[in-house]
Amino acid sequence: MGAIHLIRHGQASFGAADYDQLSSTGIEQGAVVGAELLRRKIRFTEGRTGSMARQRATAEIVLDWLGAGAAAKEDPRWNEYDHVDIVARHGGGALQDANDPRGYQEVLDASLAAWVRAGDDGPCAETWPQFAERVRGALADLVAVLRKGESALVFTSGGVIGTLAGHLLGDPAMGLLQLNRVTVNCGITKLVTGRGGVTLVSFNEHAHFEGRAARLLTYR
């Protein structure tokens, strides 16, 4: 069977002028997950990253640890949902506040639920069904190029990972609204591919952020 490792990006810069940049913690997290994949002797034949800066920067850090000669191929279908647009349309346009991350998370959670309920009739530039379809398409195209025994690394975001995990469990909306909330920065989710299709075998692995690295465990 083939294997696909979905890596959530390192912590972004919540509350900063440009959210789409790794924080100093995010940079450290990238190094830790890179070391973990090196320890596991992961050898991949395909690499993918979304086009967001936090995803690409995480990919660069990890691939440097793995000694990979080639960069991951950029595919914007692995990008996260547009939280700014979703909150603007469904959450009153609340802004990130570094002093109240929990308050913003509550607004975002309610906005995502409203986004899902709105379906194709929603006001956002990308509706929930469109988002779910594009991430499923990105996965399907990656699976199609993997041969027996080959592995892939994908650098993406929590909403994408949660949605795909939910999809493989039979409920993509549950994945977005529940699994997405508990994904850790630089956590590892593993899928395997074979004659029976794609199977979720592990979700959100983060033992590499236990012990001495526990200070680096973040969810947002």
Automatic annotation (TrEMBL):
Report the domain of life of the source organism: Bacteria
What are the UniProt keywords, alphabetically? Hydrolase
| Coiled-coil region | none
Quick check: keyword Metal-binding in the entry?
Answer: no
Record's InterPro entries? His_Pase_superF_clade-1 (IPR013078), His_PPase_superfam (IPR029033), Mito_Ser/Thr_phosphatase (IPR051021)
Hydrolase among keywords: yes
Q: Name one Pfam family in it.
A: His_Phos_1
Tell me what this protein is called: Histidine phosphatase family protein
Organism of origin: Amycolatopsis tucumanensis
